[in-house]
Predict the structure of Lipolytic protein G-D-S-L family.
Amino acid sequence: MRIKRPTAVEVARAKAALAKFVDTTDAETRAVLKEFPTLVEVRVPRPNSAIVPGLAPFFRQKHQQNVAVAKQGKAKILFMGDSITDFWRNDNGPFAGKKVFEESFGKWNVANFGIAGYTTQGVLYRLQNGEGEGINPKAIMLMIGTNNTGRNTAPEIAEGIGAIVLDMQKRFIDSKILLHAVFPRGKADDPVRGKIAEINKAISRLHDGDRIHYLDIGEKFLDEDGNIPPDVMVDSLHPSQKGYEIWAKAVKQPLENLMRDR
């Protein structure tokens, strides 16, 4: 799942080769390159921000609330993600998931660590700074990545999700992970759909049928034209109550199976 990047030795070799090539050019070209050195240069791939743990200040309060829940060590299931997971808590408004949550998962001790606006790097930070300590869930439901689509490439996002899964495997050694494909968003012809498909193709390879169970329920949210009906996701991103009903129906049995298998 890691993106291949050049080593320091390989970068140095490339720079030496470029310098040697520039020395063979004519004097006029060398003068231009001396004045504008960035016209020809060895460009090292940018760091992948999706795997660099980070917490924005305005998320700190919710993070601390999650840390307090983790320390109690009571949760048997962990929901981890962004606003799509966070809004299981909403009891009113267009993105109300609470009623469905209580009907579908109320008998289970679920810790909902979804935080609206979160990214892969945010989840990594949270796991490494308290949310992954003291808790020993039987099953984890992870759905993350959509908030990275505006700033990261598909391979970068897939690497970020892979880093989270690896961290969870090491941190929660007895837990089973239900890894969701990133949900569809936007209209059928929105370019982001292609990026999401690429992400999901990559992370589907994490499925091992043992500790990691990949699940793609995206088509359940779509109509025959590939669009998301407004009664399912009014903004083509966040589930409505009907959307949460679709989600709950699709994952209840898989979660039960994972808890039973542990």
User: Anything to note?
Assistant: The chain has two domains: 8-39, 49-261.
